[in-house]
Amino acid sequence: MEIYFVRHGQTIWNVEKRFQGLSDSPLTELGIIQAKLLGEKLKDIKFDKFYSTSLKRANDTANYIKGNRKQEVEIFDDFVEISMGDMEGIKQEDFKKLYPEQVKNFFFNQLEYNPSSFKGESFIEVRERVTKGLEKFIKLNKNYERVLVVSHGATLKTLLHYISGKDISTLSDEAIPKNTSYTIVKYENGKFEITDFSNTTHLEEK
Fold this sequence. Notes:
Substrate binds at residues 7-14, 57. This protein is of the alpha/beta class. It has one domain (2-16, 28-83, 122-204): Rossmann fold (3-Layer(aba) Sandwich). Helices cover 37% and strands 17% of the residues.
């Protein structure tokens, strides 16, 4: 089975450098173009299922990618974005003034990131969530040849790091996939293999 993991298109809050988490921000005009370009790139590939999280930025991206195909985009919220708690919607610069150490940890030392004071979700909690979610996702799609799921930056960073078999201590070294990038993961005989990481050739070809 092949799984295409896609990050949603650019949003207004991406541009404004605000933390999104479980709050929603609409796709920008560029974000819509990005999603449509990926849809064009993948139009001749047969997908048995399309999934996204329930957040609109992910669901809209998935629908643009799906295009005229008859399938509905199904919701799979185990791969939803990391919760930022009370800091959702805040600009990075303002977050830094309130919690300078945690902002630093969020970007550069994820295992030390502790959002308990603002009711957020830690990267360790995200990893636990997505690893259980991945097991569920595989069982759900075990009879299919190829599926696509639209998710989120911090979540995909954590999930793909786990899939690659790296120790959790190296999570900070993992890159965050770019907007509408797709990463292809092959799953066979109980093993995962990343065959293409954060591919954005559809954006470069425009």
